[in-house]
């Protein structure tokens, strides 16, 4: 996905450190290397994309892994209760 200045690929550890440095530079204290992945999956889920499709997009072999990435907030909980 990303190419180094020498034309090679970055290692997973290098990419994690790069994202941690970016998060720190912009003041995101609780962010991790998976924060973007979590946001991507959560936003698609909130737009109605099914968990099987999300799992495929994320490259997960089991939907249970994908389900762990979907964040739920208090507004969503309230809206769900209001459906009754």
Description:
There is one protein chain. With 84 residues, the chain is mainly alpha-helical. It has 2 domains: 1-31, no CATH class; 33-82, no CATH class. The chain contains 5 helices and no strands. The longest helix is centred in the first third of the chain and has 14 residues, at 12-25. The mean pLDDT is 88.
Estimate nothing, just give the exact number of structural domains: 2
End-to-end gap: 45 Å
Mean pLDDT: 88
- Can you tell me the residue ranges where pLDDT is under 50 for at least 5 consecutive residues? none
How many DSSP H or I helices?
5
What about the largest sheet? none
β-sheet strand percentage: under 5%
Helix content: 55-70%
Reading the helices and strands in chain order gives HHHHH
Write down how many β-strands occur, each being a DSSP E stretch of 2 or more residues: 0
What Rg, in angstroms, do the CA atoms define?
16 Å
Shape: flat
Characterize the quaternary organization of these chains.
Answer: single chain
Structural class determined from secondary elements: mainly alpha
Spell out the blueprint of helices and strands.
Layout: H1 12-25, H2 35-46, H3 51-58, H4 63-69, H5 74-82
């Amino acid at each position: 996905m990303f190419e180094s200045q020498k034309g090679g690929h970055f290692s997973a550890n290098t990419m994690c450190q790069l994202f941690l440095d970016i998060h720190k530079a912009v003041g995101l204290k609780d962010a991790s290397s998976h924060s973007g992945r979590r946001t991507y999956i959560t936003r698609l889920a909130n737009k109605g994309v099914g968990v099987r499709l999300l799992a495929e997009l994320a490259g997960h072999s089991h939907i249970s892994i994908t389900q762990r990435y979907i964040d739920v907030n208090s507004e969503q909980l309230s809206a769900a209760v209001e459906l009754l």
